[in-house]
Write a structure and sequence with these properties.
45% helix; 7 strands; alpha/beta; globular; seven-stranded mixed beta sheet; 18 helices
Amino acid sequence: MAMAIPLVLLLAFLVVPSKTDEIFDVRQHLSTVTRYSVAKDVAANDYVASTIPDGCTAIHLNLVARHGTRSPTKNRMRELDNLANHLEVLLRDVKAEAEKGNISLQKIPAWLWGWQSPWKGRQKGGELTSKGEDELYNLAVRIRERFPNLFDEEYHQDTFVIKATQVPRTSASAVAFGIGLFNGRGSLGAGKLCAFSVTSESRASDILLSFFNCCENYKEFRKNQEPVVEKLKEPILDEITSALVSRYQLNFTRQDTASLWFLCKQIALLEWTDDLEVFILKGYGKSINYLMGVPLLQDIVQSMEQAIKSKEEYLIPGTYEKARLRFAHAETVVPFSCLLGLFLEGSEFEQIQREQPLELPPKPPQKRNWKGSIMAPFAANNMLVLHSCPDNNSSKYFVQVLHNEVPVPMPGCDNKDFCPFEVFKERIVNPPLKHDFYSICSAKLEGQGPKPVTGTLTQLFSGLFWQDGETQKNKVEL
């Protein structure tokens, strides 16, 4: 990936405002392809986590995690090969003009000559990388150290339930996690590894972890909205393309800029366009995006209720489930985070309770809670840890929510991360559970099916990019 660094600089110097008092860390602005080690603990945490009261012990853990860092997909690798081919043509043309004395080649960075995609010649893609394996393995090690009483007994498939989607990188992530979690607990090899089970449902029927593939209304909504989203991104891509052409005298196209962005993934405005896409197609932009995740939420609550029942009945260790561990995709983690009401501001929680779409995330340099690099980096995870607090007078059981291992406030629980179980059920779980997956996904919503949101979004973007009074304010600083 070393050859990608100059392309980062190409766009960085063009688009990122020069501020000597502000350090721009490229690694933190890769939207949903951010590395977990960079994303963890990056969220603006003026929030002070709850102190777990003395006498409280963790009795059950639910994990919903994204797969770790993967290689680009075949389509993306093909796109970068096309970029390299087009760069070759552009450079040949500009060299011809220079030989006629019309232009100078001094503005052309030397590294552009002969640049090739780092994945040139690769025929397969999308697999979990060694870095992705490390992310999940180390996540498991930290979880075991953090909750030793949950993982202090021998592995059994009914005690530690591990599920993944039928996509190889998620099952590979589950395996890497399991190796870290059960390391030293078995009898295999010098590391005393143990064999463990990872189960998957068919992609066509996996409404727990692959609901985005099973929900017909959502697929129709996404099909309708993808052209709208691409249209919304065009002003930014065109503006940056124009800047590239002006500076380097190379006739870059909008697609060239988009390909460069995929390779670089670092400029604040372009990151924002990716975040808008995640918001509209996976997040709070439409209630169907997260309501189709209700089977997963219901499954989690039922596992907690069963854990409480086991505790109340004084079942002996090894006879009841202690953790339910799931490995899926950004399309799973983002909607589930929305169901919990995470990364909201002000009165937005009340809006989603009424199933109203939220305003789009504000444009940089304004701050925003909604960032793909924080919500859904590679190996992103939500943990819901059920605690038994027998000495508490108000409630005997509490739920703590951690996002990427960091406690996060829940608006439905008065912005606390440690919430009485009954309050968690009443305010966060029950409102969306009034819906049924098949009624959400099979019947035509509002009698017409999902409608494009073009009108509202176009008005908003008109204000951002094209109104006379705002044009200069919102232009990219070069």
